[in-house]
Amino acid sequence: MQPYSYRDSGIEWLGKIPTHWKVDRLRDQAVINDEALGTNTPVDYEIRYLDISNVNSQGIVDHDEIRPLAFADAPSRARRKVKKFDTVISSVRTNLQAVAHIDFDMENLVASTGFFVCRPKFLALVQPKYLYFFLLTEYSKEYFFSRSIGISYPAIDDYDFGSIHMPVPPIEEQRAIAGFLDEACGKIDAAIQVKREQVAMLDVMAKAILNKAVLEGLNPTVPKQTINNIWFKTLPAHWQLRRLKDVSTMQTGVTLGKDYDGETDERPYLRVANVQDGHLALDDVKTIKLPPNLIRRYELQDGDVLMNEGGDLDKLGRGHVWHNEIPGCLHQNHVFALRCFPHKLLPDYLTLLTSSTHGRAYFEIMGKKTTNLASINSTKVNLFPVPLPPVTEQAEIVQWVQHERGKLKQAQDAVNEQIAVLEAYKKSLVHECVTGKKQVWLKVSSA
């Protein structure tokens, strides 16, 4: 067969397409949210609920996490029916990576309202897997992103969703494109998964390095002592076990919403949102006006270890050392500032300890848990058991852990770069095939 000839599609993003291809609106080639359970559905009618969280960034659906629910217990308006060979795609800007082709049968499968459910109007005109690959293109995601409206829950509506232009090759070419991409993307996804497992393994190694160092020390030959404590069975014989309040002081933060008479100064202050897991997010720091005597009371000092009072359970109590990133900064009452006694406890050692299995176990057990969040009070933070080597040994441990984890981080970065290259190649391949830039049909028909 002869190579494709091309014509201008009339669509800026699409550019030139094979002369014999068509361009049409999505709504003219596919039905969108076509079927739904009625409002008169019995309350005890069992459905299988497909949530946004059930679809990962590679479009893989976690079948085991699709929950059976009574209709009355399903999230509000979760009535959109999903069938085999449908494509589901998130309508919410923050989850646009959630695109999946439903290649399995599941009775009474119903999608979250955060999904659009798409299927071809006529199988003789549009192949289901080709439709999926079109919705997977970066252009589709950018289109949906640019037309999402709303602040807390930005999303695209049905009309705008269906208004996107899609290239429509003859059905035989669609099948060839879908088959080619299925095989190629499957291989790419498999390679990406292997590399993600490598990253996860390096992370496990980093945690093992941390735990061994802060809970056992660097010298495995030192004598051990038996500890009569629920948190530890043994420790190196020359270590002590102290409560956090014995080796530091806690500074609580300013409570918002109060009015003050007289002279006030304006200062920046840290909120829970600024103290993240392993780093500070300082791009949005609020300010507060306080009298000068209170400013001194709530001002952070270099070396303070910041801990959040509340947040996600797995991040509760994790420390981060403050190094005067913002001079004169204060902190809110939901952020604790631990000031270590320099002759007893190093701030960097404390932050390592809070990230260890001991630290995570303590704060997760002691935290007060609600449906989505957890919190811990100052008393329980102050009672945190600290296995305490001499300060010189703490410094050696910190230096060694940082060095070893630094090497692992370099390896992780290298693997993540390989993942990024594979993901970029996959995006490019899908785009080139769906837009006709890569002439898949010629290869298949000449094989």
From TrEMBL:
Annotated EC: 3.1.21.-
Broadest EC class assigned to this enzyme: hydrolase
One Pfam family of this chain: Methylase_S
GO molecular function, one term: endonuclease activity
Keywords: DNA-binding, Endonuclease, Hydrolase, Nuclease, Restriction system
Any one biological process term the GO annotation gives: DNA restriction-modification system
Superkingdom of origin: Bacteria
Record-linked Gene3D superfamilies: DNA methylase specificity domains
Domain Type I restriction modification DNA specificity, first and last residues per copy: 101-183, 237-399
InterPro entries: Restrct_endonuc_typeI_TRD, Restrct_endonuc_typeI_TRD_sf, Type-I_RE_S_subunit
Membership in a protein family: Belongs to the type-I restriction system S methylase family.
PANTHER family documented for this protein: TYPE I RESTRICTION ENZYME ECOKI SPECIFICITY SUBUNIT, TYPE-1 RESTRICTION ENZYME ECOKI SPECIFICITY PROTEIN
UniProt protein name: Restriction endonuclease subunit S
Organism field: Thiothrix subterranea
